[in-house]
Amino acid sequence: MANQEKINELIEKRAKARLGGGEKRIDSQHAKGKLTARERIDLLLDDDSFEEFDMFVTHRSKSFGLDKQRFLSDGVITGHGTIDGRIVYVFSQDFTVFGGSLSETYALKICKIMDMAMKIGVPVIGLNDSGGARIQEGVRSLAGYAEIFQRNIMASGVIPQISSILGPCAGGAVYSPALTDFTIMTDKTSYMFVTGPKVVQTVTGEVVSAEELGGAKIHSTKSGVSHFLAESDEENLLLIRKLMSYLPSNNLEDPPAIVCDDPIDRLEDSLNEIIPESPNQPYDIVDVISTLVDNSEFTEVHRNYARNITVGFARFNGRSVGIVANQPKYYAGVLDIEASRKAARFVRFCDAFNIPVVTLVDVPGFLPGTGQEYGGIILHGAKLLFAYGEATVPKVTITLRKSYGGAHDVMSCKQLRGDLNYAWPTAEIAVMGAKGAVEVLEGSNIRKIEDTEEKTKYIERKEDEYTSKFANPYVAAKYGFIDDVIEPRNTRFRIIRALELLSNKKDVNPPKKHSNLPL
Ligand code: HXC
Q: Which atom of ligand 1 sits closest to the CA of residue 99?
């Protein structure tokens, strides 16, 4: 064969591989409102940056007539490219080939790029759209999944791992995304479940649709499995790019810094007024966050899950931070099981990847009741406590209003190695709120008063006394538990100065195999 013929053969093979399972299946993919695996890669990565591996790989099966059905690439496209000029490895499951199902060779392709990403120290992004284990391959497919899981585990905390769910993701296949740092689901076209609706009906008798069982909305609101909900494949992929802009490439690097055009000494008078007169009145913590951070840009994680706590990424003076903030707008910002888990996972992510944590506190306490106790709030609350206490990244805490009881300790207090802890003059830092405290301390005196009006007046007087004596920032400040009481409008500047001061902070944990996080 002449050279040119050989080159033509290569070109033809490439063209064939690019067609995946063929035009008909590509059309059917589009008809479902989904992009193809290759179109997704094109949208995700910088133009012309993708370099593909293993395009000529095919499966090795002979049974079930598979020897007559071989597709170049074998249903997954793998390689590397760049996002804003930074290298990432990517795999994109191709639903047009055997429903994107995973074979032994397919798993090896994914493992290859994961191994290379670990060697180089760059993120892995997985675009998932698959019918799960390739049924014809049996246990070899299960082994393939386990090879991927093992690599997910080894890569955890070393390189960022991001999973997009853009179609089916069922059975044990869901565990690879669950082992990664962030999961982004597309509304109406993606779902995740351990067992599908048919099995659910057979085993439990429950009739449920795929959407209700494991659709993007469910996982973004009820289970918390998905960190972000995207309206389309396009939005999903752009979210990955946005998320990447806050993250370092690996755990030994700092996150990328950008030039900040928002004045660092911008004073915000509106913050002096933001805390309502009545302690029971809510406000939106996202308004506070938007006012403080560079250009009001806040990328909220888990926006629709455990809304009583807000977490997400932003920048101060062009540098990434993770923000954790109680949200008084939902359930008064109380800490419960979901909120504790959500914030704990976020704090641990930030700590693993050298992203400072800024905590805004307005928390009335932990949610009481059997629902919470039976659900193990003790263990889940301890997760957040553990995460803050274990974190060695810079930690800056601002107490805006309430900071009561155990929740005060949990929310990045001084003794959990909070580096700089500031409070607004409106802060109430105490063991408990006035009502509860008066009930406990004055119970016997209150019971002795028979006249109802007199009783009410007595309680009110005692509550006022308690509030003025204890529900303020100055008691904590007197003991040095709060480093300074600051004017709210100065907060942006004070946070930026704190983060600058802490930029060379060194803190270490004692050597150990690993900690025993209360799971
Ligand atoms: C082989 C598969 C496949 C699979 C789909 N296909 N899933 N081939 N193994 N797991 C093929 C179909 O035969 C079909 O081929 C093509 O992909 C498209 O599938 P359709 O059914 O036509 O598409 P759709 O109607 O959109 O339904 C998609 C689906 C459904 C919901 C994913 O295909 C399905 O239920 N598949 C089986 C899912 C499953 O049970 N997987 C195993 C789970 S157990 P043609 O040639 O007609 O185009 C598992 C264990 C993992 O994954 C454990 C890890 C630890």
A: 17
In angstroms, what is the span from residue 213 Cα to ligand 1's centroid? Answer: 18
pTM given for the model: 0.95
User: Within a 13 Å sphere around the CA of 223, how many CA atoms are in the beta-carbon half?
Assistant: 18
How many whole angstroms from 141 Cα to the centroid of ligand 1? 13
Q: Is 172 a catalytic residue?
A: yes
CA angle 145-149-154, nearest 5°?
Answer: 150
Residue 214 is a catalytic residue: no
Q: pLDDT per position in the chain (519 positions), as tens? A: 789 999 999 999 999 999 999 999 999 999 999 999 999 999 999 999 999 999 999 999 888 888 888 999 999 999 999 999 999 999 999 999 999 999 999 999 999 999 999 999 999 999 999 999 999 999 999 999 999 999 999 999 999 999 999 999 988 889 999 999 999 999 999 999 999 999 999 999 999 999 999 999 999 999 999 999 999 999 999 999 999 999 999 999 999 999 999 999 999 999 999 999 888 899 999 999 999 999 999 999 999 999 999 999 999 999 999 999 999 999 999 999 999 999 999 999 999 999 999 999 999 999 999 999 999 999 999 999 999 999 999 999 999 999 999 999 999 999 999 999 999 999 999 998 888 889 999 999 999 999 999 999 999 999 999 988 888 999 999 999 999 999 999 999 999 999 999 999 999 999 999 999 999
Question: Which numeric CATH code is attached to 269-433+471-501?
Answer: 3.90.226.10
Residue nearest to atom 46 of ligand 1 (CA): 98
**DSSP element (H, E) containing 410:** helix 405-410
Q: Provide the H-helix boundaries in 126-179.
A: 139-155, 175-179
Question: CATH topology of 2-244 equal to that of 269-433+471-501?
Answer: yes
- Sequential DSSP letters for 82-131: EETTEEEEEEEE-TTTGGG-B-HHHHHHHHHHHHHHHHHT--EEEEE---
Q: Is the CB of 491 under 6 A from ligand 1?
A: no
Residue whose CA is at the smallest distance from ligand 1 atom 1:
134
Cα(419) to centroid(ligand 1), Å: 52
Q: Indicate the CATH number for domain 2-244.
A: 3.90.226.10
- DSSP secondary structure code for residue 67 in this structure: G
| Domain range list for the chain | 2-244, 269-433+471-501
Give the whole-angstrom CA distance, residue 450 versus residue 251: 65
